[in-house]
């Protein structure tokens, strides 16, 4: 049986989305993330005058974003030591064999190799940065040998300390689907 549709992210209906749009809940990003806007004291969307780019344009480059690009290139070449602190940790939520805190370059490499067991592909949809953090939104797809696929967005939050990655936090859109998928794939 193919569970592809069960693993996909389900977005709210337009009626539900309208309800949240009209509520007092705000999903604004902190000033300095390069998104061009911030929520002012009166609750209105104000232009972010702290950046030099035009409002609405995402900052495409910063030293911390370049560090994350070097992290992914370093993983591909097997050289993460230059971008990670020796005690760096990647926190993975969930109840599956890959969940937990993976420490150091070896632990993080082992975790990423576990993800590759399912022929994982990840397309970066968004990257934003400030002085201490980089946020990446990935659309990820993975496939199991039994025909089950998983496809959803994952958010990675990298904490940067003195030019190196100190911590990574991982947030999948559907934790239950991730748990089920990797429990069968990796054996939990």
From TrEMBL:
Gene3D superfamilies from the UniProt entry: 3.10.450.50
Domain SnoaL-like: 68-168
Protein's name according to its UniProt entry: SnoaL-like domain-containing protein
SUPFAM superfamilies: NTF2-like
A Pfam family: SnoaL_2
Domain of life: Bacteria
